[in-house]
Protein 1
Amino acid sequence: MKKERFDMPSLGKEDFRVPEGYFTSLKERLNTIPDAAGSPVCIPALRLRDRLLPYVALAACFAFLIVIGNTVLRRTTSRNTQDTDPLYAAMLADLIPVTNPYAVFYEAEQGETLSEEEIVDYLIVSGTTPEMLVAATDEE
Amino acid sequence: MSDREIIALYKSGQQEKAFRVIVDTYSERLYWHVRHFLCSHEDADDLLQDIFLKIWNSLPGFRGEAKLYTWMFRIASNEALNFLGKQRVRAAIQSDALPLESAREVGADPFFNGDEAQGFLVRAISELPEKQRLVFIMRYLEEMPYEEIAEILNTSVGALKASYHFAVNKIRKKLKKK
């Protein structure tokens, strides 16, 4: 590479100068850097475990969030199904006292026969008076 | 003393002695590298102190993957680029700042010996984009081979040749305009 090729004025180190004895004083100044700055701080290279730790922590956070989210979702969903699930309705029906007229009616509809004693017990518990029974029979 | 011997000296525990050898061997070359780039003796002098401080602090991390000389030139080039970047930001903040601070430096630098034509050339160089300027200086003024510049600037020889070509064309145009 020749500078003349570009039809430019030649330019070199000789066209720039420095103060008298500059490089001697520069070297002296630069040689004081270790004393002024002290020993360089040696930063040890990170071990594989330390390098992976943030990623593992991040993955653990994600897993935790997924588990929590899944649990909350399951609970919410199961509560909603309790209202509509026929199995749950049947279970609930078992908890209803036998004195519940609807339950009795339901059972009667299923073809189970009630004994006379059960009917009497029901009428007593439900507060049905003999007059009401007579009136009801008359209506029919 | 070769780069390998300097590093061996450093690793043997004689860190200050190794640093002194580095200063003796490379301070002048690094000074000229920075001086050509910044076009100012004062700025080059200030920056050289920072560059050698950085070299001292970074030496424990030097793994020997690159040559010591290449590694130090890379530090110097990066520091010079940062310095210019800061200077530009400062100039942009100050409303009365000159648009070409380096051009101002060329005229103001009492340590420039060149004639008027050389002054124009230095001014044209200082108006180049920073990276083109760096490539041009390393190739034209310091006469480094492309392979070495590529290693220092961590780029390809092809990209450097293109960058140098653009820089030469820009300088030619500027010199024709004067």
Note: Residues 48-95 of chain A form one domain.
Protein 2
Amino acid sequence: MWEFTSPRTIVMGEGALEYLRDVEAKRALIVTDKVMHDLGFVSKVSSYLEQAGVEVEVFDEVEPEPSIETVVRGGELAKRYCPDLIVGLGGGSCMDAAKAIWVLYERPDLSVEEISPLVKLGLRKKAKLICIPTTSGTGSEATWAVVITDAEERRKMELASREVVADVAILDPELPSSMPPKLVADTGLDALTHAIEAYVSQWRNDFSDALAIKAIQIVFEYLPRSYRDPSDGVAKEKMHNAATMAGLAFSNSQIGVAHAMGHALGALFKIPHGRSVAVFLPYSIEYNSSEALDRYAEIARAIGVDARDSEEAVSKLVEAVYGLLREVEEPCAVKEMGIDRSSYEQRLEDLVERAMQSTATIANPRVPGVEDYRKLFLYAYDGKRIDF
Amino acid sequence: MHWKNIFGDELMEKYKFPSEEWIKAFKEELNKNKAYEEAAKDWEGDFLFIITPDEGLDKEVVFYVDLWHGKCRDAYVVPSRDAKKTEFIYEGSYSNWKKLIKGELDPIQALLMRKFKLKGSMAKVMRYTKAASELVKTASKVPTEFM
């Protein structure tokens, strides 16, 4: 027995944002950041909501990797304003913050840390949630994950509840078209990592498999196009859809060791999320392949790899991932990220401890212990092929 | 424990699950598991493992298991769920415990599927997923005879 949870409605394609014109609500709280203001997205969303007769309030204080303090402030505003609709507008940070603010608004008796799959939240008594991603990677618009940073401990809290999945996700390809190429690459590789890890997860299922494999195919085909040509509307739209599909896939199976390591690296060295997880992707494939060889081989074949056997297919998949990383000018090893070896080694034990404590490896095909993590971090620093 | 049959073949003693003998054997096996010791080196927290009746089990059985810094300090049957106050309670039916021990059910996924219930901080448990996986692997190493 397993459950597949997704937004009730996913609105996609050109003009998707116009869905807001027909929304039924009285008061909406838009949770977003300053960049969304500058890009004009907040006024566009507000304008559509106002056409639907909805009064709008904006909380635009969400920072990258939102902190507990930020979502508590947003929760306080929600309690004063009493919205019946919350709109998460932006990248993963804004949407995750919107989910957490929504919980604090509906359940003032709970703290952020208490968002858990085992706690009955009883949401939707006061408001519904619409998520509108403006980047194509996090998948937060479709997932039950909420990543909030405990700034004091410099730790990313990986929270989750099926109840926080948005009621509606709006995928308007116009929104991500303003992303600079570096962000296109970072977020697109995040989506690829979600999809590949979902496909090999021990909690995978037929539904997550279908979404993961399609998302992987789209990323390999369209990410280079989207990266090279900001005006390539087809590539932008495909990548926007792939990110949500990958989100649905991992949300209903699981992420894996590349995320456990990426979260640790990102928190300690301030590396953008997508880049920090993607750099570990090829190493995680090699590491996991002893337990998930055929699954990776299936991925390889799905992207057109021709191979005599599974070993060769997986080896070619790893090469294809490196190839994609190079094509979108992303690092293939940690040493290429501007992190010097001595400071990396100084923090190695901290990296290992954080990765060990990550929930990301719950369903990874091979669960690393301390020694394996040490080696994985060091091999990934040097760009060495995994041989253990 | 091993002994030989009349043909001289070495046989392994099987422990009935759930029983005092089984939980003692589990404790012994866990304290030999280096991967668990490493993964749970900072863990502090005791459990009640509650096996509720179904299939061949007609009466609730409760194990007390004290896990401390990578070791199992104590493990024994307690007369009831109220006999001991612990930081965590992990509770499921006999048939689901059987699946767990046989490796047919993932301990965390089982919680999400509501096949098991956890009382205590889920967040704390989730930081020790490798340890949880080693606990289950250890249970499956105990030669077990089910009802």
Note: Chain A has a mean pLDDT of 96.
